[in-house]
Amino acid sequence: GQNIDQPTEMTATEGAIVQINCTYQTSGFNGLFWYQQHAGEAPTFLSYNVLDGLEEKGRFSSFLSRSKGYSYLLLKELQMKDSASYLCAVRGDFNKFYFGSGTKLNVKP
Amino acid sequence: KAGVTQTPRYLIKTRGQQVTLSCSPISGHRSVSWYQQTPGQGLQFLFEYFSETQRNKGNFPGRFSGRQFSNSRSEMNVSTLELGDSALYLCASSLVPRTGGTYEQYFGPGTRLTVT
């Protein structure tokens, strides 16, 4: 079966750096996505990895290791507005998307 | 450019009824996917449509169905509603089918369905 694991909840301090991990086992792999979802809102796209390595986009970076079935999202210089859920998703065979349950990030002053 | 729109935003139904939800993708986007989001299960893929054809289907019972029109607008239907169908139903559109290149999905605000 398909399995995407990420921590349920994390807490970090404003200005700090936080890493949210995601491990996956899916039928096929055609890319890994990270989405941000604020409470009561729709998910918004953050990053995409299909090759091993680090993709950087401003304060957000995402890393992928296909051989380990592992990714992480790195958030730097945390701001209060970064408090949200972060969803890891894998595009598997036949363009099916599999989502993790999300990591709720709480940013404290 | 207008985003993905979904109607209605909120809906209350009783068990046994059926419901139809609507999604209008971003102009030019031809791929539309539907997801069910619940606190316990997270985001679950329902199905994807492209050019009026269902390209993919998740592991949901046949009570869940959908269709796409020539203008790329999509509807999903749930028949014989059960209490467990209470969830946020999200629609996402993307520029092209992701068979080679990858284009991110843009999500609508969702329809909150409550079954009593």
Describe it.
The complex is a heterodimer of chains A (109) and B (116). With 109 residues, chain A is mostly beta strands. Chain A has no helices and eleven strands. The termini of chain A are far apart. In chain A, 36% of the residues are buried. The model of chain A has no long low-confidence stretch (mean pLDDT 94). Chain B is mainly β. In chain B, strands 2, 4, 5, 6, 9, 10 and 11 form a seven-stranded mixed sheet that branches. The model of chain B has no long low-confidence stretch (mean pLDDT 91). Chain B is globular. The interface between A and B is medium-sized, with 23 and 24 residues.
Q: How would you summarize the topology of this molecule?
A:
The complex is a heterodimer of chains A (109) and B (116).
Chain A: E1 3-5, E2 9-13, E3 18-25, E4 32-37, E5 44-49, E6 53-57, E7 60-65, E8 70-75, E9 84-91, E10 97-99, E11 103-108
Parallel strand pairs in A: 2-11
Antiparallel strand pairs in A: 1-3, 3-8, 4-5, 4-9, 6-7, 7-8, 9-10, 9-11
Chain B: E1 5-7, E2 10-13, E3 19-24, E4 31-38, E5 42-50, E6 53-57, E7 64-68, E8 74-78, E9 87-94, E10 106-107, E11 111-115
Parallel strand pairs in B: 2-11
Antiparallel strand pairs in B: 1-3, 3-8, 4-5, 4-9, 5-6, 7-8, 9-10, 9-11
Number of helical regions of chain B: 0
Helical content of chain B stands at: under 10%
Number of strands of chain A: 11
> What is the chain-wise order of helices and strands of chain B?
EEEEEEEEEEE
Backbone shape of chain A: globular
User: For the report, how would you describe the main beta sheet of chain A?
Assistant: 6 strands, mixed
Q: What's the end-to-end separation of chain A, in Å?
A: 40 Å
* C-alpha-based Rg of chain B, rounded: 14 Å
Give the topology string of chain A: H per helix, E per strand: EEEEEEEEEEE
Keywords:
heterodimer, A: 109 residues, mainly beta, six-stranded mixed beta sheet, five-stranded antiparallel beta sheet, 57% strand, globular, B: 116 residues, seven-stranded mixed beta sheet, four-stranded antiparallel beta sheet, 11 strands, 0% helix
